[in-house]
Amino acid sequence: MSFGGCLSVRTQLNCMTSGNLLQTNEAHMVQQPELRGPVQVGIIVSSSYRLIFNRGCTMDLVLDVADSYVLTPYVYPASWPEDGALRQILSLLVLTNLGAAILYLGLGAISYFFVFDHSLMKHPHFLENQVRREIKYAMTSLPVISIPTVALFFAEVRGYSRLYDNVDQSPLGWSGLFLSMISFLFFTDMCIYWIHRFLHHKLIYKLFHKPHHVWKIPTPFASHAFHPVDGFMQGLPYHIYPFLFPLHKVLYLLLYVFVNIWTISIHDGDYRVPGFLAGAVNGSAHHTDHHLFFDYNYGQYFTLWDRLGGSYRHPSALMGKGPMDLIRKLQGEGKRAGGGEGHHLAAKEE
After folding, report:
1. DSSP letters of 146-199?
2. pLDDT tens for residues 140-184?
3. Torsions phi, psi of 39, nearest 5?
4. What end-to-end distance do the CA atoms of the chain give, in Å?
5. By three-state DSSP, how is residue 302 classified?
6. Pairwise CA distance, residues 88 & 157, whole Å
7. pTM of whole model > 0.90?
8. Residues 336, 331: Cα–Cα separation, whole Å
9. Are 164 and 6 in contact (CB under 8 A)?
10. How many helices (H) and strands (E) does the chain have?
């Protein structure tokens, strides 16, 4: 395949046994006879890679940037070529864990301090030390989730997906970007609905999904507080999509960030939804009812599959019967919202 195709730069470089690029670098080596062995090989590979890269063909964008500015000049020895499988796997493990932690803690903190209604912490179902427990559980699970995730990223890096670099490689041009974005949302929403519903099966629930339902009144930090198997299964559709359908690499990266923002947003306790969207978009009010009432609102972005599957429930918060309404009722009755019941539930769940 030509350099303009979908194979990664490093994969293509492995197939190059001759050609102007290597000849150019070999000639350069002849002029500098003191460079030999692993150092020489490293320089040839690195220089050839830069020449190809400058011609407009990229692979995984994050890995390219990390290699160019950090990993190649400061971390790996010259004897470890950028297209080496072991180096790529190690790099992807570090970058995936670092990226997941930054997105989770960074976006979660922004949502927690600027969006989340802290009055919800007075709800009877809000657990003792819940925020700390959510963060601890998520930060323990994310490194485990990253292991199978990196296997999929590695397959993408090696050119086995249908990711492409340039718009002119899209079968439909610019319109293809818009269509792939829409299809990505609907495809992943459909898959996550059925995976999520499967995780609620009585034979599966206690093994993998129950830990996420400990948080009956979730905060933004509950967004990634999953059992590792649960977290990977619900994230799998995002990684499967580019193996089945063409997708621009930059758009894929942007959608990956969007997915994390959305996952946090449906746990942020902001139940406001524009009236014309309340019946179609699965927002925080919908998902909070899923945490509270268990068998409803499995969807990720839309209510479509919940309606088709008979699991749709109109959000109680939009009917004056939500968590904040209960808090106000308890306060109006002179009862202390929060405390004992939540602590009892925490002990029971543990």
Report:
1. HHHHHHHHHHHHTT-S-EESSGGGSTTTHHHHHHHHHHHHHHHHHHHHHHHHHH
2. 999 999 999 999 999 999 999 999 999 998 888 899 999 999 999
3. -60, -45
4. 55
5. strand
6. 8
7. no
8. 6
9. yes
10. 14, 2
- Decide: 93 and 309 in contact? Cβ < 8 Å: no
The dihedral formed by the CA atoms of 164, 170, 171 and 175, expressed in degrees to the nearest 10: 140
Q: What is the pLDDT of residues 274-326, one digit of tens each?
A: 888 999 999 999 999 999 999 999 999 999 999 999 999 999 999 999 999 99
Q: How many CB atoms lie within 10 A of CB 322?
A: 19
Q: How far is it, in rounded angstroms, from Cα 232 to Cα 226? A: 9
58: closest CA among 200, 252, 239?
A: 252
| Cα 81 to Cα 315: distance, rounded to the nearest angstrom | 54
**Cβ count near 108 (within 10 Å):** 26
